[in-house]
Design a protein that fits this description.
The complex is a heterotrimer.
Chain A (H helix, E strand, L loop, with lengths): L11 H35 L18 H4 L7 H32 L5 H13 L2 H14 L7 H25 L4 H8 L4 H30 L2 H6 L6 H11 L3 H31 L1
Helix pairs in contact in A: 1-11, 3-6, 3-8, 3-10, 4-6, 6-8, 7-8
Chain B lengths: L6 H11 L5 H13 L14 E7 L11 H10 L2 E8 L2 H13 L9 E4 L4 H7 L3 E2 L28 E14 L9 H6 L7 E4 L2 H11 L9 H16 L3 E5 L4 H6 L4 E5 H8 L5 E4 L5 E11 L4 H11 L2 H11 L8 H8 L1 H5 L7 H5 L1 E2 L3 H4 L2 H11 L2
Parallel strand pairs in B: 1-2, 6-7, 6-8, 10-11
Antiparallel strand pairs in B: 3-10, 4-10, 5-8, 5-9, 5-10
Helix pairs in contact in B: 8-17, 12-13
Chain C lengths: L9 H29 L1 E4 L4 E4 L4 H9 L1 H32 L4 H9 L6 H11 L5 H8 L13 H25 L3 H11 L2 H12 L1 H16 L3 H6 L7 H9 L5 H26 L1 H5 L1
Antiparallel strand pairs in C: 1-2
Helix pairs in contact in C: 1-13, 2-13, 3-7, 3-10, 7-10, 8-9, 10-13, 12-13
Classes of the chains: A mainly alpha, B alpha/beta, C mainly alpha.
Chain lengths: 279, 384, 286
């Protein structure tokens, strides 16, 4: 994979150092993943805990019963479902809108470019409590709006757009336009070029933006709390439950979502591999 | 609450809300009044089909996915209870509902529960954002503990009824320290430095420190307030107080990161079942007692809500709820029922405190809770 | 500027329209309410406020909470630098060595977000507990004093912020690293005969847009964060986010909360402007 031509004067000793250096990066990265996933590890561990009271803070014995009774906490599954639904829709919408804005900002000069850039940064810098409260004020002053699913969705799309824009822009800034030029020289029109050349090349950025928006949305608390009306999302549920002792089922759910997502990703990777092998 | 908006009502709300006098605000206020879901005047004697009840988490009896007492209520009256556990902090919940309430809109709830160690219940009453109870529908109100009958912020219990009470005291871990039984010890014993927490709730902390200073928390003056603040500030500055917490002291206490903590009685009952080394006592100089109160927010269905309140003031039902919740029941007779069905709980003094304990708890001066200068000073002490 | 630039000036506006209209409706308008509120004054005990051009709200906020503002930018700055140092090698590894597993690895980076902020932080409370293995080891090797602790210190708060914002740094970094043409690097290595130099002269500069993006996406929200300070810090670590939170919720002093938010936003924008100038605006805006 990384077969780089070494200068012919390289000695064997350098190879050893090169080997170490090469794998040092891998070792570091694996360590980083351990660091990143350490809390998840704790969460997974404590989903098997058997606390005798309501607080799940100290290890008191192994049990599978919370996995068996995973759905016995009222409202937990509903909250999780809502969070996932909203995160999915919000990340798709925000990434779509954000990509369009990023394209416009990077490729065109137009009046108001500077102010648009400014506008993109503002939501990021606004503290959540006032962001949520002022959005709530808006919703309350528009009488046909009922607080609930739609208001949560609107709020999430709103604060995710900026993240999507900045992420996709990072890709567009260094984009080599000559490839597009070449495609058009070969006879493709604007739209085909965009579809078959540009889009695939910025796909990793779009995916990254999707993942980021999804993560932000599924995790949001403050803005959601103020604008959710009577709905409960997973973070809202956890916040309430943690006050009096979150039951291990919360850990079970967290673990399950993590495992499902990883499995899905794994599945798509293996599926791709099979397609490549067959092709 | 009637459907049309009288001029007087509009002006009152304008004074309260400020934004009502803008055009969208006016539209909203008008729309809001007709929007009041189950809202009816207190003259209506018809039960609604559903009761919207917002409460704190794990604050009612639970069996699997159901709440037995709520099912019993439905069987008895035909009213389905839509029970939501979306309150877990007074300030946050108020921050959420003040928007609609200040615009004269209903929050689609018939009952909410707020604590009197915050200024929000009395604020809600002052602003007219809660409805009066229909006492004719609550004959069981006679079962209310006498000590709870005349709180200074709602002297005749016109707007509120207690749901559960709790006490504030000191918890300690006997594996890590000898018994910590007084506030001076908590705040000044060097052996506890950096291993204790104090409550971020002004009412509770202030009351306990004032009592330790020999002052009366029921009548707060600038002098007594400052004395308490200074004592706490010293403990903050020299690192004695590790953190100001809400009930997130539970984790560190259970894990042994804390030797002692100013804490609430109900939490400790739960923690003790997993850690036998935790003990809780009222401080030597006195503790305080707070109560979570049921209130009917504006637009709520008064008759249905009152009927429900009557239902939970039946000692049998109160005992059912108490057996699970483990805070302090405000209903006379619940203890007697539990002595027969679950004596361990009936005999637990954290759940049914003795007279000696009740004599040693105080309630803070509600005027102090609403004093902006005190509140700001407190928040600055607590760090923010 | 751009090869497709020759088109009529309408295209950019069409591209911008959906997103901008959305932001205008659901961000700018609420911001207008907030601005209005920041100039109100009144009685926080009875929640009666009226518009009085109360610019003093701004002055008071700066005067009373200067320390909090400074501390917030300090913590956010350190956390951003740490996040950059920690994430860069990781993003590089995924981009260059990830192969077909790239997307899965990206998923692992955002996986912590599936268990909500509160649970993550509580898990760290368990890991960094005074009697936990981390603190005990640090005491044994004398990095911490015999009674030292990690929780309720600024270390814990900065560590918490760094951890929680790592994905915001790592993903943009990955995005710009991933697009680098490997043949450029190979050519550089042939020229310089050193992998390290090739990295410094080619890879690093080409990844700057990602560095800028990641830095902004981390620093800006981190400055307004409140939850790490609340759960992992003591009174002395509270940030401006905590103040705004308490002004809004506990003190119901909405004008003060609003004014403080605008000050925070203004300072952040100034810092971003300076930063953009320093790195050269092309990296920022393309």
């Amino acid at each position: 994979m990384n077969a780089v031509a070494q200068p012919l004067t390289a000695r064997k000793r350098v190879d050893v150092v090169g080997f170490l250096r090469y794998h040092l990066l891998t070792a570091y990265s694996l360590l980083m993943f351990v660091y990143l996933l350490l809390p998840i590890g704790v969460v997974i561990l404590f989903s098997f805990n058997n606390p005798s009271g309501r607080f799940n803070y100290t290890w008191q014995g192994f049990t599978l019963k919370y996995w068996q009774n995973w759905n016995s906490v009222p409202g937990l599954w509903g909250a999780m479902k809502l969070s996932l639904e909203i995160a999915l829709i919000a990340s798709l919408v925000a990434t779509a809108l954000g990509t369009l804005i990023a394209l416009a900002l990077v490729r065109y000069g137009f009046r108001g470019r500077g102010s648009t850039n400014l506008l993109i940064f503002l939501p990021l810098s606004t503290p959540e409590i006032v962001l949520g409260a002022s959005l709530l004020t808006l919703f309350l002053n528009v009488t046909f709006v009922q607080l609930g699913f739609w208001t949560i969705l609107i709020a999430h799309v709103m604060f995710c757009i900026s993240f999507a824009v900045v992420t996709v822009k990072a890709r567009l800034v260094g984009f080599d336009r000559h490839i597009e030029e070449a495609a058009m020289d070969l006879g493709a029109n604007e739209w085909t070029t965009f579809q078959k050349v540009t889009l695939p090349l910025i796909a990793p950025a779009i995916l990254a933006a999707l993942l980021l928006c999804f993560a932000i949305s599924v995790d949001d608390f403050v803005v959601t709390y103020l604008n959710a009306g009577s709905e409960t999302t997973f973070p809202l549920f956890v916040w309430g439950a943690a006050r009096v002792g979150a039951p291990p089922q919360v850990n079970v759910f967290g673990t399950a979502i993590f495992v499902v997502a990883v499995t899905a990703m794994l599945g798509s990777v293996l599926y791709q591999r099979r397609r490549e092998v067959r092709a | 609450m009637t459907d049309h908006l009288s001029r007087r009502e509009l002006l009152r709300r304008a004074a309260a809300g400020g934004t009502v006098l803008t055009l969208p605000g006016l539209l909203a206020a008008c729309g809001g009044a007709t929007k009041s879901a189950a809202g009816t005047g207190s003259s209506s004697k018809q039960l609604a089909k559903t009761l919207e009840f917002s409460n704190w988490t794990l604050y009612i009896d639970v069996k699997g996915q159901k709440h037995p007492s709520l099912d019993q209520f439905q069987k008895k009256t035909g009213v389905k209870v839509d029970y939501k556990e979306d309150i877990n902090d007074n300030a946050s919940f108020f921050g959420k509902i003040q928007g609609p309430l200040s615009r004269g809109q209903s929050i689609n709830r018939d009952i909410i529960v707020m604590t009197d160690n915050s200024r929000y219940p009395s604020l809600l009453i002052k602003k007219g954002w809660v409805e009066k109870l229909d006492k004719s529908a609550i004959p069981n109100i006679k079962n209310l503990l006498p000590v709870q009958r005349h709180p200074s912020w709602d002297p005749d219990r016109d707007y509120s009824l207690p749901w559960q009470s709790g006490m504030t005291g000191i918890a300690y871990n006997d594996k890590l320290t000898d018994p910590v039984l007084s506030i001076p010890r908590l705040l000044e014993d060097k052996k506890l430095k950096g291993k204790i927490t104090v409550l971020s709730e002004m009412a509770d902390s202030l009351a306990l420190v004032m009592l330790a200073n020999g002052d009366d928390p029921a009548h707060v003056t600038n002098a007594t307030f400052n004395r308490a603040i200074n004592r706490l500030q010293k403990a903050v500055d020299n690192g004695q107080i590790r953190q100001f917490t809400g009930n997130d002291y539970s984790g560190p206490l259970a894990k042994g990161d804390l030797k002692a903590a100013m804490s609430w009685s109900g939490d400790i009952v739960q923690l003790q079942s997993s850690n036998k080394h935790l003990h809780w006592n009222l401080p030597a100089d006195g503790g305080d007692i707070w109560t979570d109160n049921m209130l009917i927010p504006q637009g709520g269905n008064v008759f249905t809500a009152s009927t429900y309140m009557n239902f939970v003031y039946d000692p049998k039902i109160a005992a059912e709820i108490e057996a699970y919740v483990n805070y302090i029941s405000p209903v006379l007779g619940a203890k007697q029922v539990l002595l027969k069905t679950d004596p361990a709980i009936a005999k637990n003094t954290l759940i049914f405190p003795t007279k000696k304990m009740l004599d040693n708890v105080h309630v803070i001066d509600p005027a102090a809770l609403s004093n902006p200068k005190y509140l700001t000073t407190w928040q600055n002490l607590v760090g923010a | 500027m751009g090869l497709l630039h020759r088109h009529r000036g309408l295209t950019p506006y069409l591209l911008l329209a959906p997103g901008l209209i959305f932001l205008l409706a659901f961000f700018v308008v609420p911001l207008g309410f907030l601005a209005y509120q920041s100039l109100e004054s009144g009685n926080q005990a009875t929640l009666t406020y009226s518009f009085t051009w109360a610019w003093s709200n701004y002055g008071n906020a700066l005067r009373d909470y200067k320390g909090h503002f400074i501390r917030s930018f300090e913590y956010a700055g350190i956390a951003t630098a740490l996040a950059l140092i920690l994430s860069y090698p990781l993003a590089y590894w995924i981009a260059f060595r990830g192969g077909r597993w790239k997307n899965l690895l990206l998923l692992f980076i955002i996986a912590p977000f599936f268990v909500t902020y509160l649970i993550r932080t509580l898990a760290w409370e368990t890991i960094l507990s005074d009697n936990g293995i981390v603190v005990r080891t640090l005491r044994d090797i004398h990095v911490l004093g015999a009674n030292g602790r990690l929780l309720a210190t600024s270390t814990a708060v900065v560590a918490g912020i760094t951890y929680n914002y790592l994905p915001f740094m790592a993903l943009p970094l990955y995005v710009s690293l991933e697009q680098i043409d490997h043949s450029l690097i190979e050519a550089a290595q042939d020229l310089y005969a050193s992998k390290w130099k090739a990295f410094l002269r080619v890879t690093l500069p080409l990844s700057l847009p990602g560095v800028v993006a990641g830095t902004l996406l981390t620093f800006i929200p981190a400055a307004g964060d409140f939850i790490n300070a609340q759960l992992l810090g003591s009174t002395k670590q509270h940030m401006i986010g905590n103040v705004i939170q308490s002004k809004f919720l506990e003190l119901t002093d909405y004008p003060a909360a609003a004014a403080m938010s605008f000050i925070l936003m203004a300072i952040i924008l100034v810092l971003v402007f300076i930063y953009a100038r320093a790195v050269g605006t092309e990296k920022l805006t393309g």
